[in-house]
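Notes continue from the previous slide.

Worked example: a multi-chain complex. Inputs as given:
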Amino acid sequence: MAENGSPGGETLLFLTDEQLRRGIEAMFFAYRAFTADPDRLLEEYGYGRAHHRALHFINRQSGLTVTTLLAVLGVTKQSLNRVLRTLIEDGLVESRVGRRDKRERQLYLTDAGAVLERSLSEAQRGRMRSAYRTAGPQAVAGFRQVLEAMMGPDLQRLYQQMKDE
Amino acid sequence: MAENGSPGGETLLFLTDEQLRRGIEAMFFAYRAFTADPDRLLEEYGYGRAHHRALHFINRQSGLTVTTLLAVLGVTKQSLNRVLRTLIEDGLVESRVGRRDKRERQLYLTDAGAVLERSLSEAQRGRMRSAYRTAGPQAVAGFRQVLEAMMGPDLQRLYQQMKDE
DNA sequence: TTGGATAGTCAACAAGACTGACTTAAAGTC
DNA sequence: GACTTTAAGTCAGTCTTGTTGACTATCCAA
């Protein structure tokens, strides 16, 4: 019922349902805060979270194809297309015909797109930076370990691939 | 560019944008996995994530009022009401007029509601448990520390209150 | 007892996810 | 060269979940 003592360790095998539930609730509340800052900014531009995600990954991996982005975001192409179309119309994203395979479309941020991506990213990094500083480097390492274990093999592969490219 | 060495610590003040971005992406992918298991179950019942959240917190704090639940979930009461109505109609949640204040409605899970909550929770705890086991107790402590720092004061207060009641 | 604040409900709308069916263009294969 | 597959995009329709605005019921205090 009450929190188990010995905060550091030794309690590995005593994973009570209560401890797990606390973890679940922490994820819920933290994710809400995590998205809150960019959400405020996005609203000013009339965009949503979906636009942010697209901008983020196009920035991260410039020139990626629509299919790749689809896999990373885990949504249907109809859903992505709605978002992508407005970003292209508004001049934040550019879609170029693939060099090798002309069926593909490669996605790039325009200068304006890079500006918005940067301010969204900065809002989100601000909170992350402050959380990291508060919790300390050892906690940060643990944070990343648990998240990586939580994503499961498929998403973990995506996540790791992103590091290299 | 590359991941800094010395996995344990010492890198506190070297919070590069790249490191922060990795954290952001880890949150994104992990949260997706985090919700995937209960989502599959919910679909069988014709419910969504909002129903899960309501069931979770009603179970956690039996007899809480609609207003309290509203604050915890961070949505508008109209949005919550739609979800709550279907849960009540389907006999998973009971809404009783408040004893002291008759304007209030106190919310309780029925037996059927408790059964569904339990299976949703079990699905979610399964992934959490496995991530905790993989990462180890020290990582778990860090995970919780970073999440708590990330939620900010308001949500952290809600989160902490929930522990006691 | 009247009038304002609070708790909750009903109605209508928008964003963003989904499925399904289809087109176009390019690439690959027999 | 004809056929199939693949990448991208489109149109239509649905669902969940968020929103605002207008409303009712209850409580409390002047």
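Summary box: Chain B has a mean pLDDT of 90. Chain B touches chain A through 63 residues (CB under 8 Å).
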